[in-house]
C-alpha cells in the first residue's frame, strides 16, 4: 500500500508538468460570450457560472417511471445520493434531482470513476515487466476491470481481455450493453438510507405501532411495498359526523322577501304610463261575467252589474322629465385619451437558415462588408465545411451580417468571443460582433535542461483589471513590425526586433476557429444557455472541418502544437476528448497559480501584486454534483455532428 501511494503521488507530479503554460489563453479556454441586458428578455448569460437555480423548469427525475441502470444506480449511492419516494436527493440536499441535472451528474461521476480506474490500471501495468501482470496485481487488475468494465475505453478493454475467461467477458459485455427493463426493480445496497414508519408521515395509530421490518431483508428501489390502508375511525356517540351527502342536498329557493330590495330613486317617474296600469284592474270583472253558465236569474235576484271602475286619471308629465328635455347637455369634459402602450413584441427564436447555395453566397461575398482577411476564411468554410454546420454558420453570416474581426485584443483570453452591444437587438442584422484570436504573445524561458513557454494575452483590459501596465515589448502591440513567420515546434512564430515573439495562427486554423465562433453565435440567437454541450457542438464542427481539409489536400492542416494535439485526440480517442472538454469547461483557476505565472513572466512581484490579485472577484466553483443545465437541442446537435464525423471515411 505504501508503494501504491508513492506511485500515485509520483503520477500526480508527472501529470502536473505541462510542456507549455497558458495564462489566460488556451485552445480549450471557454469562448467568451458577452451580451448586454435587452429591454424584453435576457437570452444568454455573460458568465460561465451555473444559473442561480438548477431546478427552475426541470422536473424531478422519477425512478419509478424510468428505472436507473444498475451501474448508474451504484455510482449515485456510492456518491452519497439517497433514493426516497422514487426521487433522488443529494446527500445534504432537500430538493430532488431534476431530469436534465441527472444527466450532468452521471456524466461527471462516470468521468471521475473512469479516470481513477485508468490511473490504477496504469500503475499496475507499469510496475510489471512488459506490462504482463501476475500474482496479487493480477487479481487487483481483474477486480478493477470487473467493477469499471462499462466505463473503460475500448482500447483498455482490449488490453484486459487476456485476464478474463470467455464466459466472464460475455457476462461483462452483456451487462454493459443491456440496461434494465421499464418494470425491472433494483436492489439497494445496505448503505442506502430507507426511513422507517416512524419517520414517514402517518394518520393512523396502527401504522405507528407496527413493528419495523427486519433489517436483513432487501429493499427494492423501483417497487416499494404499499402501506396498509388505515382503519376507519369509530363514530363518536356524542356527536355523529354529518352525512357526506349534505353537500349534495337540494337547495331551497329563497323568497323575494329574503333578498333586500334595491332602494327606489327619489325623483324617478313611473316606468309605465297610467292607462297600462288600469287594464289589469278591469280584467277580473270580465272573467266573472263570462264565467256563469246558469239559467236566467230570477227577478228577485237580479244580476249584479259589474262595478264600474273609474279610470285612473293619467299622471301629469313629470316635471323633471320635461325639464331635462330642453336643457342643453353640458359640454363633455375634454380628457386626454389614455396612452395605450404597445404590447411587448415577442422574442423570436432564431431558426435554421436556408441551405447553403455556393453561387448565391459567392454573390453575397462580393458586396459583403468584410475585409481581405475575413473573406478568404469564409470562402474556405464554404468549400470544405460539412453539412449541416456549414448552412448554419454561413447562413447566419448571410442573414445577420455580424461584424467579424481577427483581433486578439477583442477576443481577450479565449480562442474567440461573441458579444452584443448594450441595448442592441440580437435579431437585428449587424448587432453581433465575432472576434477570433489570431495568436497570443509567446514568452520563452530557457533553462539548463528544459525550456518553458508561457502564453500571455495582449488585451489591455486583462492587465488593467490587475492593476498592471501592459508590457512594453513589441509583441504586445499589434502595430509593431515583425519578421516573416517561421515554422517552429509550437507553430508559426513571428519575431520582433527586441526579441519578443508572437504565435501566428494559419488560415486553416483561423477558419476552424471562425466556424466555432459562428456556431456559438447561432446558439446565442437561439437563447441556449452556455454549457458543455454547446462547447462540444462547436469544437466537433471545428475538428470535422480540419478532417475535411486533410482529406481534400492529402495532408494534415497546419495547426499549432496545442490545437494539433487536441485534434488528434478527437480523432483517435473521442471518449477522452469528451472527458477533457467536460472536465475543463468552467475549470476553477486559483489566484495562487495566476500569481505564480505572472511572477515567472516577470510582470508581477511583491506584496502589492498579491494584494491586487486577491482584490479581483474570485471565480465561482459549482458545488459537488452540480452542473449548469443547458439546452437539450445543443446536445442533440452535438451528437448528430459527432455521428456524421465518425461515419465519414
Describe the global form. Answer: globular
**Overall mean pLDDT:** 71
Percent range for helical residues? 25-40%
Which sequence of strands runs across the widest sheet? 1-9-8-12-11-10
Strand content: 5-15%
Number of helices: 21
Main sheet makeup: 6 strands, mixed
- Low-confidence sequence ranges: 1-19, 24-30, 34-55, 178-213, 215-226, 236-260, 274-302, 621-628
Distance between the termini: 47 Å
Question: Can you walk through the features of this model?
Answer:
The chain is globular and about 80 Å long. It has a domain of 278 residues. Helix 16 runs parallel beside helix 21 and helix 17 crosses helix 18. The strands form 3 sheets. A 6-stranded mixed β-sheet has the order 1-9-8-12-11-10, with no helix packed on it. Strands 2-6-7-5 form a 4-stranded mixed β-sheet. The protein has a two-stranded antiparallel ribbon with strand order 3-4. Helices cover 39% and strands 7% of the residues. By secondary structure, the protein is an alpha/beta fold. It contains 21 helices and 12 strands.
Question: Quick gist of this model?
Answer:
The protein is α/β, with parallel strands linked by helices and 649 residues long. It has a domain at 364-617 and 624-647. The protein is built from 21 helices and 12 strands.
SSE diagram, text form:
Blueprint: H1 2-16, E1 20-22, E2 32-35, H2 70-78, E3 82-84, E4 87-89, H3 99-126, H4 136-147, H5 154-160, H6 166-177, H7 205-209, H8 274-290, H9 319-324, H10 358-367, H11 375-384, H12 389-400, E5 403-406, H13 408-411, E6 416-420, E7 433-436, E8 441-446, E9 451-456, H14 460-465, E10 486-487, E11 492-495, E12 501-504, H15 507-525, H16 532-553, H17 561-572, H18 574-584, H19 591-600, H20 606-614, H21 632-647
Parallel strand pairs: 1-9, 2-6, 5-7
Antiparallel strand pairs: 3-4, 6-7, 8-9, 8-12, 10-11, 11-12
Helix pairs in contact: 3-4, 10-11, 11-15, 12-15, 15-16, 16-21, 17-18
